[in-house]
Amino acid sequence: xxxxxxxxxxxxxxxxxxxxxxxxxxxxxxxxxxxxxxxxxxxxxxxxxxxxxxxxxxxxxxxxxxxxxxxxxxxxxxxxxxxxxxxxxxxxxxxxxxxxxxxxxxxxxxxxxxxxxxxxxxxxxxxxxxxxxxxxxxxxxxxxxxxxxxxxxxxxxxxxxxxxxxxxxxxxxxxxxxxxxxxxxxxxxxxxxxxxxxxxxxxxxxxxxxxxxxxxxxxxxxxxxxxxxxxxxxxxxxxxxxxxxxxxxxxxxxxxxxxxxxxxxxxxxxxxxxxxxxxxxxxxxxxxxxxxxxxxxxxxxxxxxxxxxxxxxxxxxxxxxxxxxxxxxxxxxxxxxxxxxxxxxxxxxxxxxxxxxxxxxxxxxxxxxxxxxxxxxxxxxxxxxxxxxxxxxxxxxxxxxxxxxxxxxxxxxxxxxxxxxxxxxxxxxxxxxxxxxxxxxxxxxxxxxxxxxxxxxxxxxxxxxxxxxxxxxxxxxxxxxxxxxxxxxxxxxxxxxxxxxxxxxxxxxxxxxxxxxxxxxxxxxxxxxxxxxxxxxxxxxxxxxxxxxxxxxxxxxxxxxxxxxxxxxxxxxxxxxxxxxxxxxxxxxxxxxxxxxxxxxxxxxxxxxxxxxxxxxxxxxxxxxxxxxxxxxxxxxxxxxxxxxxxxxxxxxxxxxxxxxxxxxxxxxxxxxxxxxxxxx
DNA sequence: GCAAGGTC
Length: 681
Prior knowledge:
Strand order of the largest sheet: 2-3-4-1-7-8
Strand content: 15-25%
CATH architecture of the largest domain: Orthogonal Bundle
C-alpha cells in the first residue's frame, strides 16, 4: 500500500513525517518541492506539503474585459477554479503522486480554510485517479501524541466545513469584483491603479476615514488649570489644584487670585499605595504587531521580518491567535539556549528563578503556540529592524516568565491659602518583568519625604488656559487591534489589508491618514452601499458559515441571498454613477497636484505615460514641457512645498512601510528620483 | 487587472 499524505505547508509535512516515522523519513526533491517518504507497518508513505490554497476562484475569460461586460453581470456568473500560479510546481507533484498511491490522507490544518485546502487537493487528485479512497487526519497541534493519535484514528472529510469556506470565497469575489469594477469605471481609474472595494478592506478604510472626520469635527473646549511647584528638602515637585480642570474662567480666576503669589503650603494628608503590576501575556500576532508598530516598524514590515526570523528557525510561527503556551513547550531549554545570545544575562536570571510559571492570555487556540523564540538562539548580527523584532520577541518571552512588578504611588494633599492642591509621586519599587520587557516603563516621579502638617515652600502658582484635544489618530498597531476586535480579516491577512489600502492610494503617511480619494470612495460607499463598509457584513457571514458547517443551511441559499442583496445595492450605485464618479474624480485631481512647476509656475501633476509609467508633468503642457521622473512604486504624497535647492516640487514617498521625503528633480542634491533620498524618518 | 484566505 502507498499512502499520499497532504499537509498545508512544508513545515507541517516535515514535522508529521518525523513524528510518524520516528525520524526515519527520507527527503526526495521533485524540482524544488520536497516529499518525505518512509515505511510504517508495511505501508509506504509519501508526505507532501502544500503552500496554502492551490486553487483560486476567477471568472471565465469572457468576463475579464472590464469595459465589455457590465460589472453587474459578475453578480450572477459562476466563477471557475484555476490552479494558483504559485502552486503549479506543487500541483504537478501532487498529480504524479496521485498516480502511484492507493489512498490519500488529508492532513491540512484542522480549521475551515484547512478543510477547503484539503478539498481542493482532492479535486486535483481525483481528476487523475477518481477512485482513490480518502481519509482525514485531524490534529490540533503538531505534537507526538496529537499527530500519532490522528493517524491511528483517521476520520472522514467534513465537506460541510469546506463548503462554508467556499461560500465565503464566492461572496467575497462577487462583491469585491463587482464593486471594484464599478467604482473604478465610474471614476475613470481603470488600469494599473484601479480603485478597490472589499468586505474587509472597505470597513477598515472606513475606520480611518470616520476617525479623521471625528478629529476634523472636533470642537476644542477651553478649560483652565492652576499648577505650581512645591518643594521640601530642596526637592521640587509639581502640584495642581484639586479641581483639576476648571470649565469656567471666572471660577478659575477667582481661585487663582487667592493662591497667586503664595509661598507656603501645608500637607493635609499623605497616602501611599502599592500596586501590583502583572507581567504581560504571551504574544499572538495582533499584540506582537501592536508593539512592533510602537517601535516604529510598520505592521507589514514587522510581519515580513517575523516570517524571515521564522524561516531561519529563530522564532516560532508568527501567525497565531493563541496566547497560552502549550504544555509541550520546553521553556527551560529555550532559556538555556537564549543564554548564548546578547540577552544571555537576562535569560540566565529568569532561568535561575525557583519556578517557571508562564502567564496565560484569554485566547487559547490549538493551531499554533504563541510567538516565542525557538530553541535555536540567534547569535548572528542582522540588520537593525530584524534585531529589534527578535529582541522584542525574546524580551516578551522572558517577561511572561518573570515575577510581578510593583509600583508605589504617593498622593499628597496640600492646603495653600485655603485652596486644595494635590501632588503625585510614582516609583517602580520592584522591577519584576519590567526589567526584561523594558519598553514603555513609566517614568519615576520623585517626591520628598512628607508627612501630615509638614510645611512646604510653594512658588510659581500659575493659571493656564488649555483646550480639550480631539481623539487620537489610529496608528497601525491600534488599527490591527481594532480589526481583530471587530472580526475583520485574520491574523494572516490584516497587515496585508492595511498595506493594500496604502497601495490603492487610500491611505498616506504614518500614522495612516485617509487621502482625498480614500475619503471620497468611503463616502460614496457609505451613502449607496453601506453594507460593504460595515464590519457586520463579516459577522453575519461568519454566522451563516457556521450554519453551513453544521449542515443547517445550504451554500446555494446563502450565495443567492447575497447575490440579491448585491444586486439591490448595485442598482442604487448605478443610478448615481455620474455623481459618485464626479466626486471621486474631483478628489483624485486634487490628490494628483504636486505644486508649482519650477520653470513656468503652473501646477505640476502626477500623470501616467502610455506605457503606464508614472511621471510628473506640467499642467501647462504643451506650452511648458517640463517633466520629472517619479518613483514607480510606493505611495506619493505631495508636500506642497518647493525644494530649498532647486524650487522643484517635493514629495513624500511611502514604500514598504517606510516614508521618505525628496525633491523630484533628477540630480538635485535633496533627492531626485535617480538618486537616493536624503531625508528619512 | 477585481476579494480574501491560505502560505513564502
